[in-house]
Amino acid sequence: MSDNGNPYGGGYGTQQMTASAQYGGAAQAPAPAGGLVKDTTTAGFTKDVLEESRHQPVLVDFWAPWCGPCRQLTPVIEKAVNEARGRVKLVKLNIDDHPSIPGQLGIQSIPAVIAFVNGRPVDGFMGAIPESQINQFIDKVAGPAGADQAAQIEAVLEEASGLITAGNIDGAAQLYAAVLQADPDNAKALAGMAECMIAANQHQRARELLSQLPEEVAKTAEIQAQLKKLDQIDEARKLGDPVALEHTLSLNPDDHDARMKLAKIRNVEGKREEAAEHLLLIMKRDRAYDDDGARRQLLQFFEVWGPKDPATVMARRKLSSILFA
């Protein structure tokens, strides 16, 4: 993968990815307006406002092109929303083009701003109020900036992990980058960014990132897991052709050397359950092979996969049945 258009092209990926979040009032680069401010339509209102407000409050600005106070409010409220860095989002609805929703909500004067939380309108204001009052309004519906920093970061990290599982690597990388802007030594975010780089086939950049960390961060389980993953990838490249190994095993299922190599290759291919099954089969047939090497290799897989990974849960259960049968 070339650097052109690559979100992992430098640093922690923050050169191209400027996603930001507010954690404890830390100074950060502003989030792009495209991420926090958008226009919507009658058809898009459910997704852009009702559904999105289940993640964070959404301010809906009802406006019209002919409205002078609307033009006064627009730059002020957009600035306030961007400086809130993800605590709220702003959705703008042109009432001339889309009159049905403001009509249903009883909007009779513009500009009017209504805050939605969990799919419901909870508060609002009318008129082009000063920026200080807009900031107070945002604090009222979203909570003061910096409230419960650790909980906010954990929530973002959990969301990023879910995006990786779903295959949205760029989305996850943006969230990890936002956390790292607020907490540069966050081990989970650093490990997550490395995982994104690995998934994007940026192995060397991932290793460079992990090699530059302070000693206390480098020793954490999350960072060590990513370093081991990189080592496993490097090793697997030297183990031969998996098709040839499969053929070898079809001729001799007890060729444990070939099966061990194939397990390591399947692991870096992301076929974790298949990799585990190969190692478990070796254990069933010959616990003495390589001084119980299949079990030791499986435990190394567990360290990288994590205790909650479905492959870990499955393999650990089967491992227990072999060890304690």
Summarize the topology:
Layout: H1 33-36, E1 37-39, H2 45-51, E2 58-63, H3 68-84, E3 89-94, H4 100-105, E4 112-117, E5 120-126, H5 131-142, H6 149-165, H7 169-182, H8 187-199, H9 203-211, H10 215-218, H11 221-236, H12 242-251, H13 256-268, H14 272-285, H15 293-305, H16 310-323
Parallel strand pairs: 1-3, 2-3
Antiparallel strand pairs: 2-4, 4-5
Features:
single chain, 325 residues, alpha/beta, 16 helices, elongated
Q: Over all CA atoms, what is the radius of gyration? A: 26 Å
Biggest sheet strand order reads 1-3-2-4-5
This entry's quaternary arrangement is: single chain
Q: How is the biggest beta sheet arranged?
A: 5 strands, mixed
- Mean pLDDT across every amino acid position: 84
Describe it.
- With 325 residues, the chain is an alpha/beta fold.
- Helix content is 56%, strand content 9%.
- The protein has 16 helices and 5 strands.
- It has a 5-stranded mixed beta sheet, with helices on both faces.
- α7 runs antiparallel to α8 (187-199).
- It is elongated and about 80 Å long.
